[in-house]
């Protein structure tokens, strides 16, 4: 929470003082605990996200993403601009190619994950849209990759939506459709219904909008947290009904997004399971 408040203050100060805006220009940017490539991954920043820069060290910068999380990344991962990137289009596929010309035969210049945003320039062509990247480069994307999705009004709608991501690889620190971790996946799902959760499961469990309920009272779309105790949460998934939940995990030699059963180990909260504690949260 402190990271979020600090990041918001810096962003507001920058706008009032006319300082530059920093936008992620690569599809997915790895954020690390320390400014080197052997450091543990902290999180990811996604194409078109505006970030604040806390510190610079050589070719590395310490950034804070909109969810209040901080980490080090390569300085060339962001582009500096005097104004906001006016992104109005949103990638609706798990991955979408962007081209330098209106022709797929030459190959894409960049491939973007689900949810990445683009600035629209022209849309008169029946197949193609002309867009601008954060660095000002003009290019093209096929309309089918940015078709407007219907909004989700409640968490029960998330069940069908979440299954679009089945089979994607588990990725430590992942926040994109190129690979999610458990909390990054849940964070993305809840954002779909307008609820912006914090980055980690250990933070998400204490969100004041969530209330503890018993496992017997679970409804589709509720979150389930796993760990040694409420203060030591290490995993989160989303209930989808019929004693099942969807999750991103490496357990059971299945390192991908999948559906698991709550009554089976290691998810059944037995003393011998990997997660001896679990709790359900409902809005």
Any key phrases for this structure?
endopeptidase fold (from Nostoc punctiforme), single chain, SH3 type barrels, 4 helices, 12% helix, mainly beta, 283 residues, six-stranded antiparallel β-sheet
Describe this structure in words.
This protein is mainly beta and 283 residues long. It folds into three domains: 2-81, SH3 type barrels (Roll); 89-145, SH3 type barrels (Roll); 155-282, endopeptidase domain like (from Nostoc punctiforme) (endopeptidase fold (from Nostoc punctiforme)). Helix content is 12%, strand content 36%. Strands 16-21-17-18-19-20 form a six-stranded antiparallel beta sheet. Strand 4 and strand 5 form a beta hairpin. The chain is globular and about 55 Å long. The two termini are 20 Å apart. The relative contact order is 0.11.
């Amino acid at each position: 929470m402190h990271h979020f408040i600090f990041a918001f203050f810096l962003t507001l100060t920058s706008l009032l003082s006319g300082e530059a805006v920093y936008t992620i220009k690569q599809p997915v940017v790895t954020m690390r605990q320390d400014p080197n490539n052997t450091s543990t991954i902290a999180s990811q920043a996604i194409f078109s996200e505006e970030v604040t820069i806390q510190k610079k060290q050589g070719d590395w910068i310490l950034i804070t993403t909109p969810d209040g999380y901080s980490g080090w990344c390569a300085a060339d991962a962001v582009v500096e601009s005097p104004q906001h990137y006016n992104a109005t289009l949103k990638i609706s596929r798990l991955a979408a190619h962007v081209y330098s010309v209106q022709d797929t035969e030459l190959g894409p210049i960049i491939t973007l994950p689900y949810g990445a945003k683009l600035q629209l320039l022209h849309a008169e062509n029946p197949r193609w849209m002309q867009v601008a990247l954060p660095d000002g480069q003009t290019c093209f994307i096929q309309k089918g990759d940015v078709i407007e999705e219907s909004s989700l009004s409640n968490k029960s709608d998330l069940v069908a939506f979440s299954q679009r991501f089945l089979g994607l690889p588990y990725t430590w620190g992942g926040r994109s459709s190129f690979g999610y971790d458990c909390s990054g996946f849940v964070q993305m799902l809840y954002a779909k219904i307008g609820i912006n959760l914090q980055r980690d499961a250990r933070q998400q469990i204490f969100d004041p909008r969530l209330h503890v309920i018993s496992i017997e009272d679970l409804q589709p779309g509720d979150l389930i947290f796993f760990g040694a105790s409420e203060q030591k949460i290490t995993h989160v998934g989303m209930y989808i009904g019929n004693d099942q939940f969807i999750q991103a995990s490496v357990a059971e030699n299945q390192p991908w997004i999948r559906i698991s059963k709550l009554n089976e180990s290691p998810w059944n909260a037995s003393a011998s399971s990997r997660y001896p504690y679990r709790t359900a949260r409902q809005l």
